[in-house]
Amino acid sequence: MIKNFIPRLAERGRVKIGEKGEMKTSQGGKQFSQPKKLDHMVVTTMQRDAAGRLLPDTPLMAQLNPGGGKITEIPVRLLYDDPDLNFFTRYACYRGTRCWCSGDGEAAQRLTAENGNYQPVPCPCERQDPMYQGQDKCKTLGTLQVLIEGVDRVGGVWSFRTTSWNSVNAILSSMALIKTITGGPLAGIPLVMVLSPKTVTIPISGQSMVVFIVSLEYRGPETELAELGYELARRRVEHKVRMEVVEEVAR
Fold first, then answer.
1. Pairing mode, strands 31-48 and 107-111
2. How high does pLDDT run on average in the chain?
3. 196 and 154, same structural domain?
């Protein structure tokens, strides 16, 4: 067996709320695809078409919404009790397609021009300020990994990736609240991944706009969720399942 090899679950597909839009031409003459935001979720496979776009998982989307129409809710379960393992977050600044700087809010690694290596720098910096107007603005990145309820396949996950501060904040807040009510357990709790509209104010211009935010919800009363958390903890003790050991392996 390979020593110090950290196994990662296979990515079965992705949940997306955006797609590649029309081709544009920059002032420098380079062509690029303008991102297009959606008001619904699209579940994809990991296969791509000739243009590099991920192909939609049509059978799975039909299963999630038999009546057709737009998908705004997906039943999911998390894999771990630790929010950081379910939802990896970081600050990142890209220049072109390359990550120029990446940090956790205390320390960052930044690419230097002198030798092409990454060097430690304080985090955050002025590029993370909401009023910063440079092209190299630092963004909040988050990757949520979930199991989709009702899929008869075990061994892989579906990922949702976002650069939205609002979605990152909503997902972290959702997990924190649910974890508090259950007394600790998050893994295995039946949840719903929800896409909902929210009116926000743009810091620089002061104008209002509608954005779509992803969050996690438990459908049921608080007392029921608390009882479910207790029951999950009891079963783990009964079957000698130590979630901290499982999570240590995942790290």
1. unpaired
2. 88
3. yes
